[in-house]
Amino acid sequence: MNPNCLQEKMLDVIPGLRESLDANAAKRNLALALRTVRKRVGLTQKDIAGKMSVSQAAISKLEAPTGSMPMTDTIQRYAAACGVVAVIGFHLPSGTESFEEDEIAAAMI
């Protein structure tokens, strides 16, 4: 069975699952971005933990797809430990007018 088909069936059958997934979408996306950056620069969770002076378990929690969103300064410290810069960007929902290039810029945090 196609995994996407199975997921859709589960979303239809399990009450509240779709809403729960939607509510955690931002944290899941951030967690994926954090893990992707860390792996791309060739570091382990233990490496990042050492650079941030926190436990490996704390890094695991940051990279988890559920739970609370980390503070901006925590994301900034994580990025610095990876040797990158964190940037906040904005996207309009599809179907809406786009920003003019000079109206908005991504902010480095």
From TrEMBL:
CDD domains reported for this sequence: HTH_XRE
Report which residue ranges the record marks as coiled coil: none
Protein name in UniProt: Helix-turn-helix domain-containing protein
InterPro entries recorded: Cro/C1-type_HTH, Lambda_DNA-bd_dom_sf
Q: Which Gene3D superfamilies match?
A: lambda repressor-like DNA-binding domains (1.10.260.40)
Task: Indicate the segments forming the HTH cro/C1-type domain, all copies.
Answer: 34-88
Query: Record's superkingdom?
Result: Bacteria
